[in-house]
Write a sequence for this structure.
DNA sequence: AATGAATGAGGATTCATTCAT
DNA sequence: TATGAATGAATCCTCATTCAT
C-alpha cells in the first residue's frame, strides 16, 4: 500500500468523523461509531490516530488550515488599508462559515490537548505557531500600528474572544428555556455578532494603545 | 430544624467544597469526598443541592457576589474618571485574588449549566443579570462613553475574555512540556497579564467605537 | 442495613463467585457475570470488593481459613507422633478436597496480588502470617525436629510445592493431546500423588537436615 | 534462501527477544517490539515462529539446553559421590546464573503451553524428556539410592520447587511495600537460598524414602 | 520470503443520584 | 431530616495474528 493510499484512508476517516461531528457532540462521537461509519474495524482507526483526541486534533488542524488560508488571501487584499472593520468582518465571517471549527477550538484546551502524546503536542503547537506568525505578519501589514510580532499576539487575543464568546453563546438546553423568561434576553448571545463587535473594539483598542507613550 | 440551621449547614457544605476545590479540579471533587469532609452522608448533600452542578453553581454565586461587591466599591471611587487603566486593573486584580472564581467561570457554560434544573437556571441568570446591570451601571458612570445598558454588555465582553484567556493559559501537562521547546513561548500565557492587556484594549476600543458615527 | 446484613450480602457474592469459579477459570469469571448471577448491579459488587482481584483474594482467605482449620484439628490429633506420613496425608487430602483452593493458590502471586491495594496486601499477609505461625506451631509439636519458627517455614516450603506441582499437573489442552504420544506419560502428573511424595520427602529431608551438625 | 540463512535469522530473532526479555516481562515484550528491534516486519516473525508463545518456548529450549549441559558436566564430576549438598549447589547455582530461565519456567505451564500447536507441544515434551532422562541418568549415578527412572522424576520434583519458589519470591510491588511492615519479613523469600534449602531437603528425603521398606 | 495494513475481541470501573428506612 | 446501600451507564485501546501483495 502506497503512502498515497494511506493518506487517502486517513482522509476517509477524517471525513467520516467530520460528518458525525456536525450533527452531534464530541462526546457522542465514539470510535466504534466512527469505525462502523467508515466501514473499518475499530483497531484500524487507532492505526491512523493514536487516540480519540489526536483524531479530533487532526480535524482541527485541517479546519484551521482552511480558515487561515482564507484569512491570508483576504488579508492580502486588505494590505495597507488599516481597515479594522473589514478585517474583523473577514475573520468572523470565515469563522461563521465553519461552525465545526469554533466548536473544536472551544474544546481544544479542555479536552483535545489533555490526552495526546508529547510529539503530537509539539507538532501541533509548531503548526499553530507557523499559522499565527504568517497570518500575524499579514495582519501587521494591514494594520500598520502593529509592530513586528504583535500580529500573532493579536490573533491570540482573537482566539481568546472566539473561545469565550462561543462558551457564552453555546447555551445548555435548560438555559435556553430560562431565556424565555422576560428580561433575560441580555444573555442571549449571537456568536458572530458579538464576536465581531468585541474583536473590532479590541483592534481599535490595540491601535489606541499603540499610540500611547508607554505601558508598564 | 429551623431555616437558620438549614442555612448554616448549607454554608458548611459550600465551605467544604470550596476548600476541596482550591487544591483540586472540578472532576476530582466527588460528592463522596465532600460528604466525608463535611461529616455528612452522601444523600444529605443532595438534600441541600439537587445536583453536583447546582452545588458548584452556588459556589460560583458566592464568589461572584464577593467579586462584584469589591468591583462596585472600587468603581464608586473611580466614578467619572474615565480612567480605563485603573478600571481594568481593578477588575483584573480582584479576579486574580480569587483564582477559584476564574476556574468556575471557565466551566460555567460547558459543565455547570449542563445539569441543573430550570428553576435554578432562571434564578442564577436573574442573579447574574442583577449584578451585571448594577455593576454595569456603575461602570457607565465611570466611563461616560458607555450609554445606558452598555455597561452590562461590556461586562459580558469582559466575561468572554476571562473565559477565553483562562482556557489559553490553563494548559495540559503535555502542552507544558511542549513549551520547553524553543520558540513556543509565544503560547505561554500569563493569565492576568494577558487579560489586562486585552481588557484594556477592549475598553479603549469601545470608547473609540462610541465616537464613530454609525455601526451596521 | 445492619452490619450483619452487609456481611450476608458479602457472603452471597462470595458464594456466587465460588460457584462460577468451580466450573470456569479466573479469566472467564467476569464481574458482569457475577453481578448477574447474584442478582445485583455491577456497581454493587465493587461496593463490597474494591477490585476483581480483591474479590478472589477474599475467596482465597475463606478457603485457606477452612483448610487451616482442618489441618489444625488434624495436627492436634497427631501431636508428638512425629508421623510424617500421616501429616503429609493430612495436608494433601485436605487440599485435594478443595480443588478451588489450589487453583487460587496457583494464581495468588501472579494475578491476585498484582491489583490490590496496600492495605489489603498488608491485611492478607498478616492473616497468612497468623495461619502460618499458628499451624506452624502445631506442626512443630508434631515434628519435634522442627525448632521454634521452623514450622511456619516448612509450611511455606509446602506452599511452594503446591504451586509448583499444580502448574506441572494443570496442563493445557494441547499438552494433554501430546501426552497421547508414547513415552510421554512421564509428564502426566497426578497432583495429589506427586505432591504427597514430594512433601513427604521434603519433611524427611528436613528431619535429616536437623540432625546434621551445621549448614552454612 | 538456504536453510542455513533461515536458521541464522531464526537465531537473530531469538537473540533479540532474549535481550528484550532480560529487562522486561513477558507481557511487555510485544511482537511489534521484537520486529522493530530485529529490523524485520511483524509478519516475518510469524514466518519463523507460529505464535508468540512458540517464540518464547524456543527461547526456553535454548536456555534449558544450556542449563542441562552445565548440569551434565557437573554431575559427571560428582559421579558416585552421593554428595547431595554439592549436587544441590550445582543445580541452584546454574539456575541462579540464568535468571531468565527461571522466569520462563515459571510461565511455561500457565502461558507458553497455552497457545502452541500440537506438533510443537509434542516436540517440546520429547525434548524435555530427553533432557530429563539423560540428566536423570547422570543423577542416578551420583545418587545411588535413586533407582532407574527416579533421576528424571527427581528432576521433575526440582522443577516444581523452582516454579513454586519463584512465585513466592517474585512479589508484586504492593506486596513489596507490605513487607515494610514489621514481622512480615517471614514472606520475603530469597529465591536461590530457599530453593537450595528445600531442594537439599527433598533429596535427603528421597534418600530416606528409598531406605524405607514400602510406600503405599 | 517478506511485508505491514487490517482485524476485533474483550471488561473493569467510577460516581452522581435515588429512595427505602 | 438524615442515611448510605444500590444502581448502571458508558467506552477506549492493545496487540497477537492473518493474508493479500
Amino acid at each position: 500500500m502506497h503512502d498515497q493510499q494511506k493518506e487517502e484512508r486517513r482522509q476517509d476517516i477524517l471525513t467520516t468523523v467530520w460528518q458525525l461531528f456536525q450533527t452531534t457532540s464530541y462526546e457522542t462521537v465514539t470510535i466504534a461509531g466512527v469505525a462502523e461509519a467508515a466501514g473499518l474495524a475499530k483497531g484500524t482507526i487507532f492505526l491512523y490516530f493514536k487516540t480519540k483526541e489526536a483524531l479530533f486534533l487532526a480535524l482541527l488542524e485541517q479546519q484551521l488550515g482552511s480558515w487561515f488560508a482564507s484569512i491570508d488571501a483576504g488579508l492580502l487584499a486588505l494590505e495597507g488599508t488599516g481597515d479594522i472593520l473589514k478585517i474583523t468582518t473577514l475573520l468572523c465571517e470565515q469563522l461563521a462559515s465553519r461552525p465545526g471549527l469554533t466548536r473544536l477550538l472551544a474544546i481544544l484546551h479542555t479536552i483535545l490537548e489533555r490526552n495526546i502524546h508529547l510529539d503530537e503536542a509539539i507538532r501541533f503547537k509548531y503548526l499553530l505557531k507557523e499559522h499565527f506568525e504568517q497570518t500575524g505578519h499579514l495582519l501587521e501589514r494591514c494594520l500598520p500600528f502593529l509592530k513586528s510580532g504583535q500580529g500573532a499576539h493579536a490573533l491570540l487575543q482573537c482566539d481568546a474572544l472566539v473561545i469565550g464568546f462561543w462558551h457564552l453563546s453555546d447555551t445548555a438546553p435548560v438555559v435556553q428555556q430560562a431565556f424565555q423568561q422576560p428580561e433575560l434576553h441580555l444573555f442571549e448571545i449571537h456568536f458572530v455578532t458579538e464576536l465581531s463587535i468585541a474583536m473590532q473594539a479590541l483592534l481599535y483598542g490595540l491601535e489606541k494603545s499603540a499610540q500611547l507613550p508607554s505601558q508598564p
